[in-house]
Amino acid sequence: MSSLMARELDLIQEFRDLSLVCEVTPRSVRLGMFLEEIKECQKRDHKLMEKLM
Predict the structure, then answer these.
(1) Can you give the residue range of the structural domain that contains 40?
(2) pLDDT tens-digit map of 17-26
(3) 24 in helix, strand or coil?
């Protein structure tokens, strides 16, 4: 199995293991843990941070 396929499998398993907390408001639907993961990863993404500055 190639390293890319192994990485994809790891990502799929991590996604499956997420406990998605769904909060419905009159204007939106929020997925708690998923949004927190995105925020944390965005903070560590150097290329993204450079573009935002």
Answers:
(1) 3-52
(2) 776 677 788 8
(3) strand
